[in-house]
UniProtKB/TrEMBL annotation:
Alphabetical list of PROSITE patterns matching this protein: NUDIX
Keyword field: Initiation factor, Protein biosynthesis
GO terms, molecular function: S-methyl-5-thioribose-1-phosphate isomerase activity; translation initiation factor activity
Protein name per UniProt: Initiation factor 2B related protein
Region Disordered, annotated ranges: 179-219
Keyword Protein biosynthesis recorded: yes
Pfam families in the record: IF-2B, NUDIX
Family as reported in the entry's similarity comment: Belongs to the eIF-2B alpha/beta/delta subunits family.
Length: 470
């Protein structure tokens, strides 16, 4: 988090620290003997902010990992600076934290570091991992929160379910570390007493502040259960988020209900994250085997995109997917990562494309699969599926079983009306962002368990209902 050579002036030294995230792990780097401060300690990508921190952090990433911003990594967010004083160094630091997503784990270390590991952020608390000061505080200021999940309109349901599990994991890991610090009489990770993020906010509704007398298992469970409840409410239309949070909490509660503490939630959250990543990968692999010939798709599903990139389609038609037009980004990526012909077209042209061109299969993702086999997905999916049914083109929905809803109720989100019409006339505007495709327009649902027919989905919903009892 802090650099090796001071090239700044003034009362405080401004530095940047970047957390690179791949899937749900972050990159930790161990500072070598070539640096001037914090040798042998673990941190993120760091360096003095000699100019604009936003520019400097990208330079440090390039120099310290060999990764190129904009190609292998993408900016997620920056956080409020962390200010602290290191009395031993007689130095005041101002750390500007950043979070970037990374599509590879292959890094080339500079001389400033002698080891690199991809680990869950909660590994910062491990006893054998000495870290640079305030590393956890810096991470928390860019980590996912309930609020960031609720406001995210760029990522699909599967990605947001992973972020929700990370929120639960991070809070549980913090509570475990606080309990250990209390029993050992050492400094708490929240030593300043400052609620640096939503994940470390003070207890609510008159609950006892465990920071005064040490965390207790019952208090830990109550705090984490309350957090899980807020995660469930953040995106009520996303069954996958609900199911995966329920799985983590149900696993922590245990069959006998005796494992209700932060350690159990941390263990279960980590296990559910691994299960989530494996399910999405396996779903994409099974779908890829079915994607030969000419394929039509829309919107942006990470699982569908992975299937298209690893499958062998000869041509891909991509609807632009208004109003955000995320289909354009998908088409550009497929053009760069596949050898097949990629064609983009307007949403209004989907029926014409299916009628005119020789399309072998429609493949789409799903935000939610209802118990009767109908599918909730980005607006336009219903139009595409109905047109495909008219032309006799099979429709494959690619979705892990965690996306199956336990309820028949549908909560469809809508977007900003100004995206449709922002003029001055007395015109009402509709901007539904999701629609429901009837089960009789769906040929199959490709999951990590294999290919299911719509009629088989209700049995999966029954299994998921059992997880709600925690």
């Amino acid at each position: 988090m802090c650099p090796d050579t001071d090239t700044t002036s003034g009362d405080s030294a401004h530095v940047v620290t970047a957390f690179l995230r791949h899937r749900s792990d972050v990159l930790c780097l161990r500072r070598s003997d070539a640096v001037g401060t914090y040798r042998g300690q673990w941190g993120g990508v760091s360096g003095f902010a000699e100019g604009n921190p936003d520019d400097q952090v990208r330079t440090e990433i390039r120099e310290e990992t060999g990764l190129e911003p904009g190609e292998t990594i993408s900016f997620v967010r920056s956080g409020r600076p962390v200010e602290f004083e290191d009395a031993d160094l007689e130095r005041e630091w101002v750390v500007h934290p950043y979070l970037f997503d990374c599509n590879t784990r292959e890094v080339e270390l500079s001389e400033e570091h002698d080891a690199a590991e991809w680990v869950p952020p909660t590994a910062i608390f491990e006893d054998d991992r000495e870290t640079v000061p305030k590393l956890w505080t810096a991470y928390e200021r860019v980590a996912p929160t309930v609020r960031s999940i609720a406001a995210d309109d760029e990522h699909g349901a599967a990605a947001l379910s992973l972020r929700a599990l990370e929120v639960l994991r991070d809070r549980a890991g913090l509570l475990v570390a606080e309990r250990a610090a209390s029993s050992e009489g050492t400094e708490s990770p929240r030593a300043n007493g400052e609620p640096v993020s939503e994940a470390t906010s003070s207890p609510r509704n008159g609950e006892r502040d465990t920071r005064e007398s040490g965390p207790q298992p019952a208090d830990e469970w109550d705090e984490l259960a309350e957090l899980a409840g807020r995660l469930l409410e953040a995106r009520p239309s996303m069954a996958v988020l609900r199911n995966r949070v329920n799985r983590a909490m149900a696993g922590a509660a245990g069959a006998d209900g005796d494992r209700r503490d932060a350690s159990a939630v941390l263990e279960s959250a980590l296990s559910t994250i691994d299960r989530t990543l494996a399910a999405d990968t396996e779903t994409a692999a099974i779908a890829a085997d079915r994607l030969g010939g000419s394929v039509a798709t829309l919107s942006r599903s990470g699982t569908v995109l992975e299937a298209l990139e690893t499958g062998e389609p000869s041509r891909i038609f991509v609807a632009e997917s208004r109003p955000a037009r995320e289909g354009i980004d998908v088409a550009e990526r497929l053009a760069a990562t596949t050898d097949c012909t990629v064609t983009v077209h307007t949403d209004a042209a989907v029926a014409a494309v299916l009628a005119r061109d020789d399309v072998d299969r429609v493949v789409v993702g799903a935000d939610t699969v209802l118990p009767d086999g109908s599918v909730v997905n980005k607006t336009g999916t219903r139009t595409l599926a109905v047109a495909a049914a008219r032309e006799g083109v099979p429709v494959s929905v690619v979705a892990a079983t965690a996306k199956v809803s336990t309820s028949e109720a549908v909560n469809l989100e809508s977007g900003d009306r100004s995206a449709v019409y922002d003029g001055d006339a007395a015109i009402d505007a509709l901007n539904p962002t999701f629609d429901v495709t009837p089960a009789d327009c769906v040929t199959e649902i490709v999951t990590e368990r294999g290919v299911l027919e719509p009629a088989e989905i209700d049995a999966v919903a029954d299994e998921l209902r059992d997880l709600e009892a925690w």
